[in-house]
Amino acid sequence: MSHRIEDVNSCTKKIICTFEGDFISNEIGIELQKKSKEAQLKGFRKGKAPLSLVAKIYGQEAESKALERFISEKCFDVFEAEKIRPLHAPMIADLDYKPKEKIHFEAVVEIVPTVVIAEDYLSSKKFDAYKAVEVSKEELENAVKGKLSKHAIYKEADSNHVIANNDKVLVKFHVSVPEDESIASFEDEAEVVAGSEQSDFNLGQEILSLKLNDKKTFSFKENESAKERSVEAQILEVKVQEIPELTAEELTAEFQVSSMEELNNKTKEELEVAAKNRFKEEHLKKIFEMMREEIACDVPKSLVEQEYQNSVEQFVQMAKRFGINPDLKENKYLEGMKAEAATNVHNEILLNQLIEDWKVEVSEDDVKDLMNLVALQSGKSKEEVESFFNSNNEKKFELEYRKKREKVLDLMVEKTNVL
Fold it and tell me: What is the pLDDT of residues 357-390, one digit of tens each?
């Protein structure tokens, strides 16, 4: 056997193999023996047909199976010997097969590329340092109201009331979709918490300062690659939040504070941390944009396709929430998703290279902390969550990678000296 490896690009390998001689005759014989035991040919009982007849009828099929298995095994041998970790099954091309004489083929696979990032790359860059955000009185009041909202009583507002944070508002909305998209325009009603940043079409923010029966038209984009849609909202009903005063015992039980003053101080600290985290998110976005421009690498198409399909699945689920079955073949909304998927994969390649370069490790305590967090968020017991992850290596690996990712992102911020 002879083989050589060619680099198509930094994420694609071509393996060229040549075998001179008879390598699969025995395998073909084994395939025919298997077939003869199960074949039921006319004039013969099952498994009793002569091997020569079985070979005449099924010989080509047996030869194809034997050849396919031989190529697969030899590709695996080369991958193992050359320490190649393919992302998918090899794509076979240029097959030259002469029975009992020669087998020649080329196999193409994608791999995760190795990226060279200078040790002082991030520390040598200049970024604007973080400036502490002053939490306003209004912002603090709204945050405290949000915490106490489960105790709130809602009363119908009069027609002159200006919609403010935490009001409950019944909104009728009409979404106009561009004609070149397959999804039709639609209309619906929804109860929205004013000021919320999690509401559909950003209604929670857009309705602030409106009054009962007011109408407002605004533009909305689902993400950077999506087209703008026009949304017309009308206020049908407004309820104002009223919060009763809680006792010291109730405050301690729910928030681990003994007074409203302590609750205000604790909430202010949380808002300051949240502001810093938002800065970190924006800062990391800038870092990745810079790295993608300055540290180019070939992005595996198979990973981009996988990321793209995940995005499409999320898009379909979102559409179905509104009773829409989108036509994915004609939908213009999906066009930008491929580029976004390539960006996400490029980011992950850079991130994984930093994890390797910086030798980021995860301890058992790190994993246990994450398991405890999952237990808290899911409402399951710690024992149930630990048992699930400890019995599922793939899920535990995902958990460990999540922690590595957190650590390397923190290191990226730390090395740029902005906090």
Answer: 999 999 999 999 999 999 988 888 999 999 999 9
Handedness of CA 194, 195, 199, 201 (dihedral sign): positive
pLDDT at 388: 92
**What pLDDT does 405 receive?**
95
Per-residue model confidence (pLDDT) at position 331: 63
Rounded Cα distance, 395 and 392, in Å = 6
What CA–CA distances, in Å, run from 218 to 173, 231, 253? 11, 5, 43
What's the per-residue H, E or C state across the chain? CEEEEEEEECCEEEEEEEEECCCCHHHHHHHHHHHHHHCCCCCCCCCCCCHHHHHHHHHHHHHHHHHHHHHHHHHHHHHHHHCCCCCCCCEEEEEEEECCCEEEEEEEEECCCCCCCCCCCCCCCCCCCCCCCCCCHHHHHHHHHHHCHHHCEEEECCCCCCCCCCCEEEEEEEEECCCCCCCCCEEEEEEEECCCCCCHHHHHHHCCCCCCCCEEEEEECCCCCCCCEEEEEEEEEEEEEECCCCCHHHHHHHHCCCCHHHHHHHHHHHHHHHHHHHHHHHHHHHHHHHHHHHCCCCCCHHHHHHHHHHHHHHHHHHHHHCCCCCCCCCCHHHCCHHHHHHHHHHHHHHHHHHHHHCCCCCCHHHHHHHHHHHHHHHCCCHHHHHHHHHCCHHHHHHHHHHHHHHHHHHHHHHHCCCC
Strand pairing of 186-193 and 153-156? Answer: unpaired
Domain architecture of the chain: domains with CATH:
2-110 (3.30.70.1050), 153-242 (3.10.50.30), 264-415 (1.10.3120.10)
Closest residue by Cα to residue 337 from 219, 223, 201:
223
Reported as a single tens digit per residue, the pLDDT across 245-283 is 899 999 999 999 999 999 999 999 999 999 999 999 999
Q: How far apart, in whole angstroms, are the C-alpha atoms of residue 266 and residue 318?
A: 36
pTM: 0.72
Q: What is the largest CA-CA distance in the chain?
A: 95
CB 382, CB 372: distance < 8 Å: yes
